[in-house]
């Protein structure tokens, strides 16, 4: 390869270089060490859980399924954009209808804003990054300043009694998360032999359920589907959480606490692991692309940053979250674990970069193997009720 590193070659062949760089420029190989580190983590987790984990497939799989390519300062998925603020770069995500609807309030205009991005570019250019992020977050719009987050290990606190070390096989996992990072962790645990129950509200099901079916199947095909109203039937959900060995959630802590469904509200269970995944610190919204921007995990073009791969903070966090759950099982659990997507991205961002090269092939990412079709919403409610009843009797 004429001096080109094997890491760069692997980054290129994985499709990740194809997803990084300006759309009218060459692919970017500078973040090749991110994949190398992810492969090391995947190998360690796979050995612990007894499953084979393809790190490159995890990082590039959604783009392959959706046919995405690099967009430079427009994320591969299209919902996030990099903007120049008065003192540097920031990112704003408009992935939900409410986000776009809040743009006039953000830019402080009474006029209709049919295309929000020109207005956002003009507004951001006259404000410092901190003001852009602060005002966007007040309106619940995901936003981040480049490099604002520092690398940090997951926060781990005792929660209940520690039990014996356990393997994941046969454990019951209540997966309340949505989108990508949390569901990926749940899916890896399911593939390792856990019984995973995907919990969704009928009022607000997982947003990816209504999107690309192949992606939803990939993340959720091994799980039972349990549909329950978090407000009207909180008792039924509390019963599931009480008997669960592992709980995965990605909402803001207050969302469950106000319903008395948080880790402090559920009857203790020996060895239970409560995994909380959030974009930042649990007080603001975020998605994979803006969280990666916050962590400084970006590619670099001649005139500034570009997005690195596709929402890369999501699959990296899902992989890292699975690692910390596996480690906790080895310690006997009894822990509340909080994982920040931005902090995970920052940890990968500090890995050495290398000069980008353009003389290597950079094919599109390969499509992952077909997954088992995910269950329709609520299809397994009766089975979950039986499972909860059986486990509840076992605790009597």
UniProtKB/TrEMBL annotation:
Whether Iron-sulfur counts among this entry's keywords is no
Keyword Transferase attributed:
yes
Gene3D superfamilies from the UniProt entry: Crotonobetainyl-coa:carnitine coa-transferase, domain 1 (3.40.50.10540)
Query: What superkingdom heads the lineage?
Result: Bacteria
Which keywords fit this entry according to its UniProt record? Answer: Transferase
- One GO MF term: transferase activity
PANTHER family reported in the protein's UniProt record: FATTY ACYL-COA TRANSFERASE RV3272-RELATED (PTHR48228:SF7), SUCCINYL-COA--D-CITRAMALATE COA-TRANSFERASE (PTHR48228)
Name of the featured protein: Acyl-CoA transferase
Q: Which organism is it from?
A: Mycobacterium scrofulaceum
Organism classification, top ranks?
Bacteria, Bacillati, Actinomycetota, Actinomycetes, Mycobacteriales
């Amino acid at each position: 390869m004429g001096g080109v590193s094997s890491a760069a070659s692997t980054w290129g062949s994985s499709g990740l270089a194809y997803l990084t760089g300006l759309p009218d420029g060459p692919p970017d190989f500078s973040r090749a060490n991110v994949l190398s580190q992810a492969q090391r983590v995947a190998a360690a987790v796979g050995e612990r859980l007894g499953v084979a984990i393809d790190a490159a497939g995890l990082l590039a799989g959604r783009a392959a399924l959706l046919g995405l390519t690099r967009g430079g300062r427009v994320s591969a998925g299209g919902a996030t954009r990099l903007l120049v603020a008065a003192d540097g770069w920031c990112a704003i995500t408009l992935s939900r209808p409410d986000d776009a609807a809040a743009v006039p309030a953000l830019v402080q205009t009474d006029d209709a804003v049919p295309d929000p991005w020109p207005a956002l570019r003009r507004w951001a250019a006259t404000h410092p990054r901190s003001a852009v992020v602060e005002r966007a977050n007040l309106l619940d719009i995901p936003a981040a300043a480049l490099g604002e987050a520092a690398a940090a290990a997951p926060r781990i606190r005792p929660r209940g009694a520690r039990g014996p070390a356990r393997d994941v096989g046969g454990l019951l996992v209540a997966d309340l998360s949505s989108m990508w990072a949390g569901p990926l962790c749940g899916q890896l645990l399911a593939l390792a032999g856990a019984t995973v129950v995907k919990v969704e509200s009928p009022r607000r099901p997982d947003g990816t359920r209504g999107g690309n079916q192949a992606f939803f199947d990939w993340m959720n095909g091994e799980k039972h589907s349990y549909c329950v109203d978090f407000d009207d039937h909180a008792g039924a959900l509390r019963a599931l959480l009480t008997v669960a060995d592992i709980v995965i959630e990605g909402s803001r802590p207050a969302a469950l606490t106000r319903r008395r469904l948080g880790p402090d509200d559920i009857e203790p269970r020996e060895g239970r692991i409560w995994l909380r995944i959030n974009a930042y610190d649990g007080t603001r919204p975020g998605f994979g692309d803006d969280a990666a921007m916050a962590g400084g995990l970006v590619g670099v073009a001649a005139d500034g940053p570009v997005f690195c791969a596709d929402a890369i903070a999501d699959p990296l966090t899902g992989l890292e979250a699975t690692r910390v759950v596996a480690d906790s099982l080895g310690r006997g659990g009894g822990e509340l674990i909080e994982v920040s997507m931005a902090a995970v991205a920052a940890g990968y961002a500090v890995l050495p970069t290398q000069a980008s090269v353009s003389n290597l092939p950079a094919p599109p990412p390969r499509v992952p193997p077909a997954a088992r079709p995910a269950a329709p919403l609520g299809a397994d409610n009766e089975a979950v009720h039986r499972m909860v009843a059986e486990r509840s009797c076992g605790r009597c």
